[in-house]
Amino acid sequence: MSIDRIATDGVAIDWLHFTPWTSLAGGALIGLAAALFVLLNGRIAGISGLLGAVLQGGEGRAEKAMFLLGLLLAPLLWGLFAVMPVIEFQVGWLSLLVAGLLVGLGTRYGSGCTSGHGVCGVSRLSPRSLLATLGFMASGFATVFVLRHLFGG
Amino acid sequence: MRKLTALLAGLVFGIGLLLSGMANPSKVLGFLDLAGAWDPSLLLVMLGAIGVAAAPMAWAGKRSRSLLGASMQLPVKRELDPRLIGGSLLFGIGWGIAGLCPGPAVAILFSGHWQSVVFVLAMLAGMLLFTALERRRGL
Q: Does B64 reach chain A within 8 Å, measured CB to CB?
C-alpha cells in the first residue's frame, strides 16, 4: 500500500487515513453524550469507571448498566442505517489478552481511561485527569514506538 | 426516566465512537505511531468532544443536582498520587499494544470480531484482579 507522506517538522502525516470531519463530528457526539449524562444523570461518562461499578456493585448500578447497554447496542443501531465502519485488528490473541489485562488493571488503578479522564476530566480541567491523560498518551506513543520501530523492524 | 436517559447517552456515545474512528484499532495505532505515517484524526476526536463537553461540564460543576434531580456525582479527589500515574502508564501500554481502550472495546463487542471478545474478557479480568488486590490490601 502506498502511503502519501508529507513531512512536516519531522512528523509524516498520513493524509490517506486522516479523517478530520468524521473524527470531529464523532468527537462532538461523544462530548454531547458526556454532557447529557452529567447534566441529566449527574454522572461522569467514564467507561472504565462504569464497568468497574457494574462489576463491583453499589449505588447507581442500574443506570450505569443502562449506559453500557446503550454503548453495546450502538453498532446494532448503526447497522440499521449505514454500513458498519472498518474495524481492523493488528494483533493476535496473546497480545489482546495482555493488552486487555493491562487496560483493565491500569484504568482501575488510574481511576479512569480515555473517556473519564481524557474527555470528561480534561473538559473539567481536572489536574488529575490532565496528568492521567498525559500519562497514558505518553506510554501509548512509547509502546507503539517500541513495538513497531524497535522490535517490529 | 434516568435509566432511559442513561441508555440514550450510551447510544449517542457509541455512535460517536463508531463515526470518529476510535472504534477501529488500526486507526488508533496509526494515531499512536508518531514515528510512522501519523494519522492525527484522534486529536480531532478529543477536540470535538472537549469542545462540546467543556461548557456543560462547567455548568454541572456549579450544580448540586442534575436537571432530573439526581445528586451531582463529580470526582472530588485532588491528589496526584503514584496510583494515578502508574495506573495511567499501564493503561497506555495496553492501549498501545492493541489499539483499544474501554469505550470502543465495549462498543464493538457485538460487531462480530472475536478479538473484541478476547480483549473485553481480559479487561474485565484485569478489573476484577484490581478489586481482589484492593481487598487484600484492606485486610
A: no
Contact map slice: A 4-33 vs B, CB within 8 A: 5, 11-14, 16-20, 22-33
**Average pLDDT for residues B53-80, to the nearest whole number?**
93
Report how far residue B127's alpha carbon sits from residue A51's, in angstroms, rounded to the nearest whole number: 8
This model of the complex carries an ipTM of: 0.96
Percent of chain B with pLDDT over 90: 89
pLDDT at A153 over 80: no
Domain parsing of chain A, residue ranges: 5-150
A53 touches chain B (CB under 8 A): no
In this predicted structure, the answer to whether residue A5 has a pLDDT above a threshold of 70 is no
Domain boundaries, chain B: 2-138
Report d(CA A3, CA A12) in Å as an integer.
Answer: 10
Find which of A101, A120, A125, A147 to mutate to test the B interface (most B CBs within 10 Å of its CB): A101
- How far apart (Å, rounded) are the C-alpha atoms in residues B126 and B77? 23
What share of chain A has pLDDT > 90, as a percent? 84
Q: Which of B4, B21, B84 sits opposite A23 (nearest CB)?
A: B21
- pLDDT tens digits, one per residue of B125-137: 999 999 999 988 8
In 3D, which of B98, B11, B77 has the Cα closest to residue A124?
B77
Gap from B129 CA to chain A (nearest CA, Å): 7
Which chain B residue has its CA at the smallest distance from A90's CA?
B26
- Reported as a pLDDT band with limits 50, 70 and 90, residue A60 is confident
Hey, which bits of B7-66 come out as E strands? 37-38
- C-beta of residue B122 within 8 angstroms of C-beta of residue A100: yes
Strands (E) across chain B are located at: 37-38
